[in-house]
Amino acid sequence: MPSDQGLRVVQVTGRSVGGAAEHVLLLTRLLGQQGVEVQVALFGAGPLDDALRATGRPVHQLLPGARGGAAAAWTAGPVGLATGFVRLVRLLRREPVDIVHTHTSVAGVVGRAAAVVARVPVRVHMMHSVPGAHPGPRWRRAAGRWAERLLARVTTAYVAGSHAAAAMLRDGLPRRAPEVVTIHYSFDPEAMAGGVAAAALRRSAWHPEGDEVVVGIVGRLEPQKGVLELLPALPPLLGASPRTRVVLVGDGSLRPEIERSLTSLGIAHRVLLTGWVERGGEVMPALDVLALPSRWEPFGIVNLEAAAAGVPVVAYAVDGVPEVVADGVTGVLVPPGDSAAFVAALGRLCADRPRRAALGAAGRARLDAEFLPAAMAAAHLDLYLRLSDADSPASG
């Protein structure tokens, strides 16, 4: 069995954007600090590539000519994926690798297949989104479920970021499936490095008048995040709270439609679209309330980033969100899809500064008790060592 000082792990993921990439970045840095030999293989370029390289660990781009900003879409066709597969097999054969840990859907399929061909003994896959468990075309959901049932045969173990995601995953796997281990996500302290001074600059840029209450929605402007459905419920809130401003931090395919909706609703002057911000945690100290209207959310790292900044959350009670946001303690949860209740909860918090402060303080305390980065990394390292030990000849 390799010791923790000699364990060789390759993390394989898609573009370095979103919560999965934030997780890979944090895990790579922390495991490297524990003496694990970590490398990262990417299927596509993204906004966190430089941050991954800054960890000092080798980062390999598997797609030929991959490029793209924060909001660039997935563009790899069959030829690109085949090339990436071959490159990954060569990488895994170049020197001994103990574990391949894959993330995201496409990278999870190609990465595990490459690990089998390269004879990597331990293959771990983290489910950041459970195939077939969320809205989408029926054929795509069915294909995702069946693909994962087949891949379960070559997967040593699964990691899920929440108990809810783990339960959904188990429901779709065959009876003799590998074990599914829940390891909660954590937050990256380096994403909060800007601190109070940076927050003050952001707030002054967002609203020069000064004393507004800032409600932030932080994330990709994509259907999953539910922003477009929430917008029609905002006019009553903004009408009743003239000192409240809503800030949409992010970018994505829905931005043009969101801009048209804001104009037609007559609230474009009260809702600011900031565009892409490389690290969502950087903006948290500038917010008074985080709104998370996601239609589905296996966990939501953004909730932890809000807690780290002492910012309360209003969210729909979907999937793993209740494991992060304690209703009435660190934030407010409302029934999924009830936009009127969502906006009403926002209004109450915007009008009640002491309650915002109390919820934010409780969120910070819960974060320190249950979601610390060191504990997340230690759980992964324990899993890696256990699986490597089970695979070693002496264990047979």
Number of helices: 15
pLDDT < 50 stretches: 70-74
Q: How many structural domains are formed by the residues? A: 2
Main sheet record: 7 strands, parallel
Classified by CATH, the class of the largest domain is Alpha Beta
In N-to-C order, the SSE pattern is EHEHEHEHEHEHEHEHHEHEEHEHEHHH
CATH superfamily of the largest domain: Glycogen Phosphorylase B
- Beginning-to-end CA distance, first to last residue: 12 Å
Structural class: alpha/beta
Radius of gyration: 21 Å
CATH topology of the largest domain: Rossmann fold
Looking at how many chains there are and whether they match, the oligomeric state comes to single chain
Shape: globular
Task: Summarize this structure briefly.
This protein has 15 helices and 13 strands.
Structure description:
The protein has 396 residues and is an alpha/beta fold. It has two domains: 8-186 and 372-395, 3-Layer(aba) Sandwich (Rossmann fold); 194-369, Rossmann fold, CATH 3.40.50.2000. The protein has 15 helices and 13 strands. α5 links the parallel β5 (122-127) and β6 (157-160). α1 packs across α15, α3 (78-94) crosses α4 and α9 packs parallel to α13. The longest helix is centred in the last third of the chain and has 19 residues, at 373-391. The chain is globular, with a radius of gyration of 21 Å.
